[in-house]
Amino acid sequence: MKRTTIKDVAEAAGVGVATVSRVLSGGSASAETRERVLAVAAHLDYRPSALGRNLRQQRTGGIGLLVPDLTDTLYGRLAEGVLACARSAGEPVVVGSTGDDPEQEAELIGMLLEQSVDRVIAVPSGDAEAWGPAIRAGMTVVFVGEQPEEEPGDDDPLDELLLLDGVRTPPKPDGAIPTVLADDRSGVRTAVQYLKGLGHRRIAYLGGPGHPRRVAAFREALGELADEELIVFAGGGRDSAYAAASGLLQRHRDVTALLAGGNRLGEAAVLASRELGLRIPGDLSLVMYDDVPWAELCSPPLTVIAQPGQDLGYRAAELVLRAGARRPRGVLLPTELIVRGSCGPRP
Amino acid sequence: MKRTTIKDVAEAAGVGVATVSRVLSGGSASAETRERVLAVAAHLDYRPSALGRNLRQQRTGGIGLLVPDLTDTLYGRLAEGVLACARSAGEPVVVGSTGDDPEQEAELIGMLLEQSVDRVIAVPSGDAEAWGPAIRAGMTVVFVGEQPEEEPGDDDPLDELLLLDGVRTPPKPDGAIPTVLADDRSGVRTAVQYLKGLGHRRIAYLGGPGHPRRVAAFREALGELADEELIVFAGGGRDSAYAAASGLLQRHRDVTALLAGGNRLGEAAVLASRELGLRIPGDLSLVMYDDVPWAELCSPPLTVIAQPGQDLGYRAAELVLRAGARRPRGVLLPTELIVRGSCGPRP
DNA sequence: ACTCACTGTGGATACGTTTTCATGCATCTC
DNA sequence: GAGATGCATGAAAACGTATCCACAGTGAGT
Predict the structure, then answer these.
(1) What is the per-residue pLDDT for A150?
(2) In the predicted model, is pLDDT for residue B1 greater than 50?
(3) CA of B85, closest CA in chain A: separation in Å?
(4) pLDDT tens readout for residues A124-183
């Protein structure tokens, strides 16, 4: 089963291969030749081999996508966004799931490198160092939803981001990787203020791996009400999340409101509070990060901080596809507090 | 930024390129040469270019994955399964989202063809005909979770599937495409019998696009209780599902039990019944296809038919990677009825 | 000692494409 | 009419790899 090559088309059309290539790539050719070549190509059902082309032009053209876990609705949405943009550009997308494990992430980066995939969108799991090989190899990298940990001492890079209204920051310094983020700071602040307004004073934060910006925003928004004891972190797994939630609620019975920094954490919080006999929102007010479909089905329906998952992916894809051009250092997308029924006044 | 090629390694090691290729591909070479070549390769941080290799061997090696929608938890799990298996085989995975649209599916198939991706796992959306070009081009295709519609008159292909216990079916006829399925028939039958046992007589089915086997099983399991009026279908969208659910429940107030053939449909059913003031399970018993995380968080927790999403993907990947070998015509994975709180006795 | 088999090795080739370069032909300009 | 200009075209090179084939060297068997 030999595939039809450009040579076959050239032969059948009685022209040289160069002409065929030109016709198909939109180069110049006489109307007559163009027509004949196209007809023959269609008749032979010819498809140019991406392999040959890529080898010739030294780039795969595809784009790589690395997310922690496709099972998570947020990353599913993000992936859909990337795929949508990639499809409109006709680019294939190679997807890898890192499981939030820096080691797997590094392995996948190596795989993409090997495939000569030169454009990558990633929700980074490891530290910035892991991406050294990638950028050194000339990859165009865009981070989304998360930033790799840097050495401390950096000022908050958020301040320099391109805001939605299109304000351009100064040309990005060498090595800075464009990042598409949801406006965590604003989201968390809004939620915390909402809870404060309901009279809550003992507000806890339940976080997972990553998302340092959410935690920072939480501390900041809480101000003097902040209590490090009420900020706990779980690992990546579902069990770990449940254990953390349950432990937190048992240790600190005076907690009247909880902000869950992810839908996995929110799920754990709901289960744990049920298990402990805490009524939502009677005994405990709950705000969850990520507006997942079940938030509305939950009982009571959950008040959430929604991030535009699909947009995050789409914008990241746009960014990574705008290869040579001067690209903004980042994009910040708005979050939204969607009030449902999981928060009430302080009991 | 030139990448280091096999030629560089050969030069630096003082050997021919052929030798380097052999060493790296596990061919024969003297211990001394092998060691030197490996050392040099490591020192130069050499990575063989997949482009060159693929072009040479006329295959990309990667595997393609086509699902209707990554946002759906089931397909997210399925994708994770595929990725897990692919990673252990060191194969990249190109993912496409068809949106349940045969046209997009065909387009994506074309893209994979162009990329010389010669192994594809797909949840088919269109009819079998759409896959003609793919198999004609020599692609190894495995379907998962769904079968493309065939001309009527075929007997149920399920009967010939390889069951979990390893019974091998007769060698597959030419053109038959291996398929990995969840045992819908058994799942639906169990659920229907469970509902019957609770006294329900007017049992409705709410389906989406595809999954004809579930519907058939539903009719079969219901026997003389079956009523075509109570079998309704929605389109792919969320709105369509809600409209179908709401319409069904309004038109037929005597329905006391509902089987939702997918988690999107289940979601719609919950919302619609709430809207109509129907209490679950007081007025309406609900069984939903797919055990999604929120099924347990719903109020009441939903009784579901669970399919092993991740396994489906993993098995499909195994199948598609076992290229040359004689492959079974299909794999059937068990489903499980998980009883929670959304079903009660007939009111 | 001669052949034979075998092993390690490197040169050359092919994979399918894009792109550069040179060639031929027609048209335009002075 | 001669030179210049432009355009369509095809031959050939290059991308990085795997593999075929030939060649040299070695050891064993006769």
Answers:
(1) 62
(2) yes
(3) 11
(4) 987 888 888 888 888 899 999 988 866 444 444 444 444 444 433 333 444 578 999 999
Question: Which of the nucleotides lies closest to A10 (Cα–C1')?
Answer: D10
Give the 3-state secondary structure of residue B232. Answer: strand
Q: Which among A300, A297, A294, A290 is positioned nearest to A338, based on CA atoms? A: A290
β-strands A119-122, A63-67: how paired? parallel
Q: What average pLDDT does range B314-327 have in this prediction?
A: 82
Question: Which pLDDT band holds residue B273 (cuts at 50, 70, 90)?
Answer: very high
Residue B270 has pLDDT above 70, yes or no: yes
Residue B162 DSSP label:
B
pLDDT tens digits, A184-218: 999 999 999 999 999 999 999 999 888 989 999 99
d(CA A318, CA A336) in angstroms, rounded, equals: 23
Give all strands of the β-sheet with B231-233 in edge-to-edge order: B231-233, B203-207, B257-260, B285-289, B303-306, B336-338
Gap between the Cα atoms of A280 and A258, Å rounded: 11
Pairwise CA distance, residues B278 & B283, whole Å: 6
Q: Identify nearest nucleotide to residue B37 by CA to C1′ distance.
A: C9
Q: Which two tokens stand for residue A118?
A: 């030169």
Q: What phi and psi, each to the nearest 5 degrees, are found at residue A265?
A: -70, -40
Residue B204 CB partners (closer than 8 Å, separation 6+): B230, B231, B232, B248, B252, B255, B257, B258, B259
Using the structure block, give the residue that is written with the tokens 């609705």. Answer: A73
Q: In this structure, are residues A115 and A94 in contact, taking their beta carbons and an 8 Å threshold?
A: yes
Q: How far apart are CA B186 and CA B41, in angstroms?
A: 55
Q: Identify whether the C-beta of residue B171 lies closer than 8 Å to the C-beta of residue B203.
A: no
A182 forms beta bridges with A333
Please, what is the average pLDDT of chain A?
Answer: 87
d(CA B101, CA B113): 18
B215-230 burial: b if 16+ Cβ within 10 Å, else e: bebbbebbeeebbeeb
Task: Measure the CA–CA gap between B83 and A73, rounded to whole angstroms.
Answer: 17
Residues 104 through 143 of chain A touching chain B, CB cutoff 8 Å: 104, 107-108, 110-116, 133, 137-138
To 10 degrees, the CA torsion angle through A113, A118, A119, A125? 20
Q: What is the dihedral of CA B11, B13, B17, B20, to 10 degrees?
A: -150
Q: Omega of the bond prior to A281 within 30 degrees of 0, cis?
A: yes
pLDDT tens digits along A111-121: 999 888 989 99
What pairs with residue A121 in β-bridges?
A65, A142
Phi, psi of A60 (to 5 degrees): -85, -30
Please give the structure tokens belonging to residue A345.
């006044």
Backbone angles phi, psi at B326, to 5 degrees: -65, 125
B174 touches A at CB < 8 Å: no
Its sign, for the CA torsion B291, B293, B294, B299, is: positive
Q: In B, which residues are within 8 Å of A96 by CB distance? A: 83, 87, 92-93
B100 Rama class: left (phi>0) / alpha (psi -120 to 50) / beta:
left
Q: Output the six-digit token pair for A60.
A: 């795969």
CA angle B271, B307, A244 (to 5 degrees): 75
Contacts of A54 in chain B (CB under 8 A): 51
